[in-house]
Amino acid sequence: MCKHVLNAQVSIRSPCCKKWFDCAECHAETADHPLLQRTEMVFACKKCKKAFRKEADEFEESDEYCPHCDNHFVIDALTPKPRLEVEGEDVRIDARMLKDERLPEEQPRTIFDVKEAPNKLG
């Protein structure tokens, strides 16, 4: 998973080291060389897991879709936004901070009438 682009639809194979990356920033963090740029790009769709090639200088609107499964991979990137949270703020993540506000029952629940039971026995 890419930590720079949250909704990456394809992986890109770098022409310099032949490794797969979700974005150019991932390549810059892990590789010790600059990214070699070519006009022919090799993609791997994350939906159908199949690879395909596209020419960058002849890129048209129809080329924005995977040729195998029609997944639209040219979309606006969602990047993570820094935010400050207090631990335990979201109940879906951490439910330990919830307070049980139920009141204890005064008497044990039963199907019998507890007040009249001593008069009926014996």
TrEMBL record:
Domain CHY-type: 1-71
A single GO BP: protein import into mitochondrial intermembrane space
Pfam families: zf-CHY (PF05495)
Keywords: Metal-binding, Zinc, Zinc-finger
Domain of life: Eukaryota
GO MF annotations, alphabetized: zinc ion binding
UniProt cross-references to PANTHER family, sorted A to Z: CHY-TYPE DOMAIN-CONTAINING PROTEIN (PTHR28082:SF2), ZINC FINGER PROTEIN (PTHR28082)
Protein name, as recorded: CHY-type domain-containing protein
